[in-house]
Amino acid sequence: MKTDRSDRLPERAHAMKLKVNWFVPPPLSLISKARGFDQARGLEVLATVTTGSDAQFEALCAGEADAVVTAMDNVLMWNRRGRIEDIRIVAQIEAATGFILVARADAGRVEDLVGSDLLVDSAENGFAIALRALLHDAGIPAEAYRMIVVGGVRERFGAFKAGRGQATLLATFVEDAAVQAGFHTLARIDTLFPGMPGQGLAVRTGAMARAEPAIRAWLGAMDEARAWASENPGPARAIVEETGVPAPVVDTLLAGIPDSFQPRNAEIFQDQRRRLGLPGADGGIEMLVDDRLFRTLA
């Protein structure tokens, strides 16, 4: 994607508006806004924070969000819920997953989770599928544990500290807090599944005619932010910190900035589903990813 200023849109009295829903703000979006790259393209990003992937699905269905930053696997099952079938990943927003399996002290190995309640965002899609694959590879069948739907990382960590469940997936930026609370890390998703991509930008292709100019502008602004952050790492970190994001979260967010927005290795999610015998493994990668928007920006 080009990073020069020649493709900027002129500043306007009435900016294009892009409604985006996410769990945690992408650092490039924070930097882009702070540096004025959004405004230079005539863009205003209207962000909302979600409590879970099901809420993101509802926001897309209702038109309350033009795009959501979410686990790529979510799209495979969202399109099978019988309501809409045109959700696709159009860009990769995080380089890697950055999730860890955290357990209570009495579970020293993954194998000790037999019979456990596991706290997840969704039992049928998202990073819970990687958790299922992890357990499967450890010889634990699906009927030997229970997945309890709680919500996003904040909701899961809160419930875990309150005594619910024996283990849960958490983002790496929560690891220090988890250790201080008496928990420990059993496994790292990125280590077990090398190359597994982080969150992507999911949109409804049927709504692209309306949202595409704003999505193009946002990706272009974040690409400029990436180039600026690469040359100015200290100021870039300061921008993210100034938004009130805790230091451990800042480290994780900045480390997760992708080299490219082009979706990569998305077939890993279909492969995991295929190994587990779960729906969503059928069809080609085009059932998950539509990178035509990215290719026109490259």
Could you characterize the architecture of this molecule?
The chain has 298 residues and is of the alpha/beta class. It folds into two domains: 5-94 and 197-297, 3-Layer(aba) Sandwich (D-Maltodextrin-Binding Protein, domain 2); 99-192, 3-Layer(aba) Sandwich (D-Maltodextrin-Binding Protein, domain 2), CATH 3.40.190. Helices cover 39% and strands 17% of the residues. It has 13 helices and ten strands. The strands form two sheets. The chain has a five-stranded mixed beta sheet. It has a five-stranded mixed beta sheet with strand order 7-6-8-5-9.
Summarize the SSE layout with pairings.
Elements: E1 16-22, H1 27-35, H2 37-40, E2 43-49, H3 53-62, E3 67-70, H4 73-78, E4 87-92, E5 99-103, E6 117-120, H5 128-137, E7 146-149, H6 153-161, E8 167-171, H7 175-180, E9 184-188, H8 189-192, E10 200-204, H9 208-231, H10 233-242, H11 247-255, H12 267-276, H13 292-297
Parallel strand pairs: 1-2, 1-3, 6-7, 6-8
Antiparallel strand pairs: 3-10, 4-10, 5-8, 5-9
Helix pairs in contact: 1-9, 5-12, 9-10
Q: Note the total helix count.
A: 13
Q: Count the domains.
A: 2
Question: Percent of residues in beta strands?
Answer: 15-25%
Shape: globular
| Overall number of strands | 10
* Broad CATH class of the largest domain: Alpha Beta
Which blocks of ≥5 consecutive residues have pLDDT under 50? 1-13
